[in-house]
Amino acid sequence: SDLTGADLSGAHLTYADVAGADLRSADLTGADLTGATGVPATDQATTFATTTCPNGTAASPSCEEWAQTLTVTNGEDVRDDDPGDGVCQDVGGGPGDCSLRAAIDEANASSTTDTITVDATVGTVTLARAGVDNTNADGDLDVTDELTIEGNGATVAQTVGDRVLHLHAATVLRDLTVTGGAVSGDGGGVFVAAPATLDRLTITGNEAVNGGGLRVGATGDLTLRNSTIADNTADAGSGLAASGAVAVVSSTVSGNTASTSNGGAIRTNTGALVSLLFATVADNTGGNLRAPVAAVTVGGSIIADPATDGNCV
Question: pTM above 0.85?
Fold first, then answer.
C-alpha cells in the first residue's frame, strides 16, 4: 500500500504487516507499531532516553546519549561512586550529594559535552586529596572530556601541593576563583593542554616554576576574557607562561612576581603567540613581558609600571 502523505496520527498498527509499504512522508505521530511485522524492533520504540542509555551503558540505535547537566551541591573533595551512570553522587554520600570532583568524574566518563553548575550556596570547594595523576583521582582536578563549568562565584582552593585544574580536553570555565595551587613544575593555578575559554575568572595566590597562575602548553589554545591574574609567583611567567596560542581580552595581569627577570606577568616560549586586546599588564615584579616582539600582538592595552627590570619584550 502507498501511504505517502497519509495522516496516521493515533492509528493503532499493532500486528499490522507493513512490509514493503511506502511510509515516506507519512505522519506516524502517536502510532503504536509494537509487534508490527516488517518493522525493525529498534524502530518500534516510542519512548526515547533523555539521559544516558540506560545508566552506565553505551548509546545504541534504540537509545541516544544526551549531554548531562550536573549540579555541585557541596565543597567536599570526594570521588563519584559510579562514574558513567549519569548520576553525580559522592562515594559514601546520598542522593543529591555531589562534589566538584565527583561531577568531573561523571563528565569525564561521558562521550558528550557536559555542563557542571556549582550551586551558588557552595562558596568554596577545598581540594584535599593528596596524590599526582591525570585521571582526576587525586591532587588537581583533571578534565579529560569536553566540559563547561559554571562556577557561580565559587572558589576552588588547593591545599595539598598540586595545581588546581589540568585541562586535557576542550573546556569552558566561568565565574570561578582559582587559588592555592603549588607545583614544582608548570602551571600552579591552571594548566591548559587543549582549547579553553576562561571567562570571569580570578586566578590568584598560586605558585610554580613556570606559569604561576596559568601555563598554556604547546597543545593549548587559550582565550582569557574579563578575568584577573594577580599575586601569583614563579621563576618565569608568574602570571602566565605560554607555549601555545593565547588571547588575553579585557583582562588584568598584575601584582605577580618572578624570581628573575623572566616575565613577572607573561613569559612566552618557542611556538607561543600572545594577543593582548583591551588588557592591562601592570605592577608585576620581574618585568611585565618576557617575549620576542614577533610573539606578541597588542591592541588597546596598557603595559605599564613594572615593579623592576622594565618590559622585557
Answer: no
